[in-house]
Design goal:
Blueprint (H helix, E strand, L loop, with lengths): L1 E11 L4 E11 L2 E7 L9 E5 L4 E4 L1 E6 L11 H19 L1 E6 L6 H10 L7 E3 L4 E4 L10 E4 L1 H14 L5 E4 L19 H14 L3 E5 L2 H10 L3 E4 L5 H9 L3 E3 L3 H4 L8 H10 L3 H23 L13 H14 L4 H8 L1 H6 L17 E4 L13 E6 L2 E5 L2
Parallel strand pairs: 1-4, 1-5, 6-7, 7-8, 9-10, 9-11, 11-12, 12-13, 13-14
Antiparallel strand pairs: 1-2, 2-3, 5-15, 15-16, 16-17
């Protein structure tokens, strides 16, 4: 299949520039040519598409997602799995999210949907799966139905081996409590003992699996970085040493600002206010989020301004809204449109290990792209003005 997409304002998120009058040629799902002006010569077998000056950019990513929780009352595992697939598909077609990384799911439904989408059975984003997230007995977020409780070094080792047996892409460990939880689930509390941590990281290293580390306080962040975590999720409370360790090392930071920032008292636009109203979060949890927000913002900005490798992940639902809301939180905390777009495209693809194939619009890469009506580098909220979604050069959503 050969497709030429013409008359596009090409968004270069890396350089922070717009390349007007661009044409992108896609052959068998990969970008074969990028040119300016009239575009390449075509033949009778070429499909032509004129974007009319729309802004063509890499598809978006969300590198911290979960299925809906708690499951609908009385719903079966099959119904929950189907609902997750539906929401994943909507994230692609309604928000232009072409890739997601899961931070916990029950019954390995993230693995199932990864394989269904890869096989072309259904239209959906690229999924990077972890199965259950692993926590201690009495650990974090047990009400989600996505947790596996473990105790002792071998308890974690056995659970990790089971995740591997079920074909996950990475291992999610909850080192601390969180903002959303009962009274004993607090983000400043660390949950895993040193020998549990060491055993968990040792087996992941031995088997070649990356660790997605939920770490919300300074001690946990530093322990995870020292042990070789691939990513730190949340980092609600950090310190200068955390920032320096992240900056100097290979560990990515995924701040998930939405968790602490989306409350009635903090919502700043119609999208945030609508989301807050629809979610109906309990008052005590909203108070916990409000109390954590300023500290979270402080360390987010320290990481952003300190050169820490960062990517965009939301940790909220529904998935069709999640990444867009997280982008808005980054913007109101002071990130530039270019920084946000990089976090949601190039950086996210690199974090997931597929930067050679995805994340930018370059010759040789897969043509997972979106077209929006107005310039997202001028105002990142313009990504909401979605017109087209391409997966390997094929239109999977047309909102023109």
């Amino acid at each position: 299949m050969r497709v030429v997409i013409r008359n596009a304002n090409l968004v270069d998120c890396v350089a922070g520039e717009i390349v007007p009058g661009s044409s992108v040629t896609v052959v068998d799902g990969r970008i074969a040519d990028i040119s300016q002006g009239g575009g390449p010569q075509t033949d009778a077998g070429t499909e032509m598409m004129d974007l009319g000056g729309a802004y063509l950019m890499p598809g978006l990513w969300d590198v911290h997602i979960h299925p809906e929780y708690p499951p609908a009352s009385g719903s079966t595992i099959a119904e929950q799995t189907a609902d997750f697939g539906y929401n994943l598909s909507r994230a692609l077609t309604e928000a232009g999210v072409i890739g997601v990384r899961c931070g916990g799911a029950s019954n390995f439904m993230d693995v199932a949907w990864r394989e269904a989408f890869e096989a072309g059975k259904y239209v959906g984003p690229r999924v990077f799966a972890c199965g259950n997230f692993l926590t201690t007995t009495g650990g974090h977020f047990l009400t989600s139905g996505q947790a596996r409780e473990c105790d002792g070094p071998y308890g974690f080792v056995q659970a990790i081996r089971e995740q591997i047996k079920n074909r996950v892409d990475h291992i999610k460990l909850n080192l601390t409590g969180g903002i959303m939880g009962p009274f004993w689930d607090r983000h400043w509390h660390s949950f895993m003992l040193d020998d549990e941590l060491k055993a968990a990281f040792d087996i992941c290293r031995q088997r070649g699996y990356k660790v997605m580390a939920h770490a919300a306080n300074p001690d946990a962040v530093k322990s995870a970085v020292r042990l070789g975590a691939h990513t730190i999720e949340h980092g609600y409370i950090m310190d200068d040493e955390c920032i320096e360790m992240l900056r100097a090392g290979r560990t990515w930071y995924v701040p998930t600002l939405a968790i602490s920032h989306l409350t009635p008292s903090q919502a700043t636009d119609e999208h945030e206010r609508r989301w807050v109203e629809q979610r109906g979060t309990a008052p005590d949890l909203l108070a916990r989020a409000d109390d954590a927000a300023d500290e979270h913002k402080k360390w987010f900005l320290a990481a952003l301004n300190g050169g820490v490798k960062m990517a965009l992940g939301s940790d909220i639902r529904p998935l069709k809204d999640a990444a867009l809301l997280e982008m808005g939180c980054w913007a109101r905390d002071g990130a530039t449109s270019q920084q946000i777009l990089l976090a949601a495209t190039k950086n996210a693809a690199e974090l997931c290990g597929v930067g050679d194939d995805l994340g930018t619009i370059e010759v040789g890469k897969l043509a997972d792209m979106i077209a929006v009506a107005e310039n997202p580098l001028e105002d990142v909220t313009n990504v909401r003005k979605l017109r087209l979604v391409f997966k390997e050069g094929r239109v999977v959503s047309d909102k023109r």
